[in-house]
């Protein structure tokens, strides 16, 4: 169309020229031609001006502010997304940990940028949103047109920076910037699939994998030519003799997994301790023990673990609690049995009748200490300590096989690693597998906010295991709301308060503090039945199951349980050492005084009794039959403390944890973290940089 108009003007110019020469007799004049040219120019530029005006009008109306007026529209004093640019003050890619900045600038006349212009800066890295500090405008001339932004990248990866004006992206937005991990931090470097005891075979290469991470726990990235492999080292010592061992080792870097692999080969069977260092400093979980077996012993251990069968290993019981006076005057012949759940010590009366002496739970809290060779029997010795029972000292010619079998069974039960994160993932995986065939569709029901516990008990009275595995859709009576996860989360939080708050008397504490851990109340009111404990167990199991599903289903138990209670949940025997966490005043007073000073410095004689207050009245309870007449002595103080713990830690056995058998393979602290979260905060950790 524009070509036709231009052609029309050229034809008229030609006619006007011919008219002056007398070759054309039409009525065309210069005035007529100039008028046509103005009409053509108007026809060409009016649409462009109209489009720009409409675009500017849309920008001003989207900001919904009184700052823009008709005068600003005609003078051009308004922000236009396509006329703004961003300048980044770092080179791409950058390294995490540094505070970086960029400037959003309006090109053109000076314009005071402010909050009224609707400037929005959004920075994301995957599903994580990054906080940004923005400063708009300024007093000096260069700063008037700019918005200055700062943020700190702590996660390595690709970042998306979106800059919007009046809900419109500026030119080039969103910007993609990559941040690389920092240098290795010795406190964050860790051994993968950590185990406190590593089992090897003589002459067979064993692989140890290390993940080098920076101070923000990002997996470090290296060029194969620039990696400092010479700074990684492993030092191995023989446990019994203490001499250094120089095994055949090789340290390489795997570019695919970005891990350091250390290959070691030991030629002599025995027990060793290894220390993995970076820059001559021990790394996290870099200290562990190595048990080297012969090929025959290794095959025996593998068959035992694979078949989940067990056999007895002859040993000599040298002492029980070597720090007390209960040591054995003569070594007793016993047999060690390592099962998938326990380490059992038995003796045979008349060589036929078995008698169980001691049992140790198969968990990381049970520790083995290797102590050289017994002078009388000539067999290697070891001590077994689980932190609750008396320390047992044994001499056994198959000591290495017993310890290796124990370690392999334990790793198989907890998922192959002793770190909390790996055990948690294994727990969640087993829980999902256990209930994989159960439906998880929505199950609606209505409860009353005023009588939450009673109405919930009534609503879930006929629920089966399949019903408890379904996704609850909660409606509060008399309230409007659609449960898309928020009402369900609020329901579980309020329900946990109703169940586990000590003021409700279903659970109680050893001392009156706001954050004191709770346990079942042995003196509960008559209206609280055993069914309430069973219901509380189902609620805890439901929260654990929802957390295993992850995402928006994750629920937390709003309660802190005592260590003794958690120990009983996973089948461990309670011990007076649990008082240090559950009742610090009792532990620092009576318990430590008896352990350190005995009974000689007591002002009054102590008997096998305990005192407690019920309804303002002090009552005395015998810890054993005839305990009121049995005096506590230095020889019987351990028995007294044990009896005191057994009495104070009695609880309702109806507290059922939703039939989660896999829970029994976890450590007390692991169970505590899964159910209650962290209990202590480190100032150093709070000061350290975060990955958020």
């Amino acid at each position: 169309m524009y070509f036709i108009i231009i052609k029309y003007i050229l034809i008229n110019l030609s006619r006007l020229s011919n008219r002056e020469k007398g070759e054309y007799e039409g009525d065309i004049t210069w005035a007529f031609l100039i008028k046509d040219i103005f009409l053509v120019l108007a026809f060409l530029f009016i649409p462009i001006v109209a489009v720009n005006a409409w675009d500017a009008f849309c920008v001003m109306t989207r900001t919904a502010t009184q700052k823009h007026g008709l005068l600003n529209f005609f003078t051009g004093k308004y922000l236009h997304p396509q006329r703004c640019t961003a300048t980044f003050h770092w080179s791409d890619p950058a390294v995490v940990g540094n505070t970086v900045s960029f400037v959003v600038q309006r090109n053109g006349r000076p314009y005071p940028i402010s909050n009224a212009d609707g400037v929005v800066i959004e920075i994301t890295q995957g599903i994580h949103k990054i906080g940004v500090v923005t400063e708009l405008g300024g007093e000096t001339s260069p700063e008037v047109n700019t918005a200055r932004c700062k943020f700190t990248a702590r996660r390595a990866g690709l970042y998306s920076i979106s800059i919007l004006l009046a809900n419109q992206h500026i030119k080039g937005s969103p910007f993609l910037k990559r941040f690389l991990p920092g240098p290795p931090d010795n406190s964050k470097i860790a051994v993968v699939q950590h185990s406190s005891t590593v089992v090897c075979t003589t002459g067979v290469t064993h692989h140890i994998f290390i993940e080098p991470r920076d101070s923000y726990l990002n997996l470090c990235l290296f060029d194969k030519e620039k990696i400092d492999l010479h700074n990684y080292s492993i030092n191995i010592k023989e446990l019994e003799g203490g001499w250094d061992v120089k095994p055949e080792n090789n340290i390489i870097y795997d570019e695919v997994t970005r891990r350091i692999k250390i290959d070691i080969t030991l030629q002599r069977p025995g027990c060793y301790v290894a220390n993995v260092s970076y820059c001559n400093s021990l790394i996290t979980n870099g200290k562990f023990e190595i048990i080297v077996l012969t090929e025959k012993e290794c095959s025996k251990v593998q068959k035992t673990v694979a078949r989940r069968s067990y056999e007895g290993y002859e040993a000599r019981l040298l002492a029980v609690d070597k720090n007390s006076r209960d040591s054995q005057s003569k070594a007793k012949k016993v047999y060690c049995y390592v099962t998938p759940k326990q380490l059992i010590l038995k003796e045979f009366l008349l060589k036929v009748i078995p008698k169980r002496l001691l049992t140790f739970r198969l968990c990381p809290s049970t520790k083995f200490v290797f102590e050289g060779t017994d002078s009388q029997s000539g067999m290697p010795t070891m001590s077994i300590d689980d932190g609750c029972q008396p320390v047992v000292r044994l001499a056994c010619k198959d000591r290495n096989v017993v310890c290796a079998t124990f370690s392999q069974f334990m790793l198989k039960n907890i998922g192959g690693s002793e770190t909390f994160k790996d055990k948690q993932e294994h727990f969640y995986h087993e829980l999902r597998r256990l209930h994989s065939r159960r439906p998880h569709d929505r199950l609606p029901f209505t409860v009353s906010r005023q009588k939450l516990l009673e109405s919930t008990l009534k609503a879930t009275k006929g629920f089966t295991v399949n019903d408890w595995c379904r996704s609850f859709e909660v409606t509060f009576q008399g309230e409007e709301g659609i449960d898309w996860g928020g009402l369900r989360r609020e329901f579980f939080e309020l329900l946990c308060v109703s169940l586990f708050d000590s003021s409700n008397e279903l659970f109680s504490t050893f001392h009156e503090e706001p954050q004191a851990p709770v346990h079942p109340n042995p003196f509960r009111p008559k209206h609280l039945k055993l069914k309430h404990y069973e219901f509380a167990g189902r609620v805890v199991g439901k929260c654990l199951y929802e957390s295993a599903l992850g995402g928006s289903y994750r629920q937390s138990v709003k309660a802190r349980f005592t260590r003794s209670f958690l120990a009983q949940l996973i089948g461990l025997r309670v011990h007076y050492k649990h008082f240090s966490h559950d009742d610090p005043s009792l532990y620092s007073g009576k318990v430590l005084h008896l352990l350190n000073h005995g009974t000689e410095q007591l002002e009054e004689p102590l008997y096998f009794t305990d005192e407690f207050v019920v309804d303002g009245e002090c009552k005395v309870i015998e810890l054993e039959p005839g305990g009121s007449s049995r005096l506590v002595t230095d020889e019987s103080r351990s028995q007294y403390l044990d009896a005191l713990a057994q009495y104070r830690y009695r609880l309702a056995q109806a507290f059922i944890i939703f039939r989660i058998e896999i829970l029994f393979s976890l450590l007390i602290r692991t169970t505590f973290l899964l159910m209650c979260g962290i209990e202590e905060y480190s100032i150093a950790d709070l000061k350290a940089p975060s990955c958020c």
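The chain has six domains: 2-62, 81-180, 190-293, 295-418, 433-572+652-676, 576-648. Residues 54-71, 322-327, 656-670, 675-679 have pLDDT under 50 and may be disordered.
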